[in-house]
TrEMBL record:
Residues engaged in binding substrate: 116
The name this protein goes by in its record: Oxidoreductase YtbE
Alphabetized SUPFAM superfamilies for the sequence: NAD(P)-linked oxidoreductase (SSF51430)
UniProt key word Oxidoreductase: yes
GO molecular-function term, one example from the UniProt record: oxidoreductase activity
Xref: PROSITE patterns: ALDOKETO_REDUCTASE_1, ALDOKETO_REDUCTASE_2, ALDOKETO_REDUCTASE_3
Active site as annotated: 54
Matching Pfam families: Aldo_ket_red
Gene: ytbE
The entry's keywords: Oxidoreductase
Length: 280
């Protein structure tokens, strides 16, 4: 499992999604953003994750176009994700938000479109819109982000299509076992955002010890742990050497004992908002 950067997981609708990609949260429009994505494509990344609220879809689109030309690859070889923001949740407003994102990205379709947060009273209407977009062939796969088990259960009560992805905050301090188990048992692929806990785990002694054992960095150990747990991961970086380093995790495998040592670091500690208390 997970022997190369291009390896994919098959979503429950048959779509192939790379296990590993790059995220661009809080990377502003401009050369840094464009270069980061072009670096990633050059070095073999094929999955790029953005969102309307990041405010950088136009730059991502520019980078995709330039990166494809320079690498000599086709659009079909890339997997592009974006997300609808809370203020646009609703049926018509979600359809419009999707079209806006698509135009900014300069694309004919998206590979994955997600509901960014489970805003009560709104996400079911938004899901109906995603189902429409999916049925019309404008997006290859649809899913959610930051959904807890009860949100997924509520959504699936009257959904025509089950989410293919649930993208959540996931790292050694927040292992989300209940969500992970539910998603696995229902054929929903779990995906990690903030897999490195925004750099807060770099000096963690147990992780440092494991990193030394495998002659790897702490981020590489964490990202490998993600993949061996069956979790798609999209670390953010803008520096070329870090983009390369993050992806250099396919030449080793963590032992069962070391996987369990990392699992045991869980404290149910979030660096992002609590999905059950959304006030934005």
């Amino acid at each position: 499992m997970n022997k190369s950067l291009q390896q994919t997981t098959t979503l429950h609708n048959g779509v192939e999604m790379p296990w590993f990609g790059i995220g661009v949260f809080k990377v502003e429009e401009g050369p840094e953003l464009v270069n980061a994505i072009k670096f990633a494509i050059k070095h073999g990344y094929r999955s790029i994750d953005t969102a309307a609220i990041y405010g950088n879809e136009a730059g991502v689109g520019q980078a995709i176009k330039e990166g494809m030309e320079e690498a000599g690859i086709s659009r079909e070889e890339l997997f592009i994700t974006s997300k609808v923001w809370n203020s646009d949740l609703g049926y018509e407003s979600t359809i419009q938000a999707f079209e806006t994102s698509l135009n900014k990205l300069g694309l004919d379709y998206l590979d994955l479109y997600l509901i960014h947060w489970p805003v009560e009273g709104k996400y079911k209407l938004a899901w109906r819109a995603l189902e429409t977009l999916y049925k019309e062939g404008k997006v290859k796969a649809i899913g959610v982000s930051n959904f807890q088990v009860h949100h997924l259960q509520e959504l699936m009560k009257d959904a025509d299509i089950k989410p293919m992805i649930n993208q959540v905050e996931y790292h050694p301090r927040l292992t989300q076992m209940e969500v992970k188990t539910f998603c696995q048992s229902n054929g929903i692929q779990l995906e990690a955002w903030s897999p490195l806990m925004q750099g807060q785990l770099l000096d963690q002694p147990i992780l440092s010890d494991i990193a030394k054992k495998y002659n790897k960095t702490v981020p590489q150990i964490i990202l490998r742990w993600d993949l061996q747990n069956g979790v798609v991961t999209i670390p953010k970086s803008t520096k070329e050497h870090r983009i390369v380093e993050n992806a250099n995790i396919f030449d080793f495998e963590l032992s069962k004992e070391d996987m369990e040592r990392i699992d045991d670091l869980n404290q149910n500690h979030r660096v992002g908002p609590d999905p059950d208390n959304i006030d934005f």
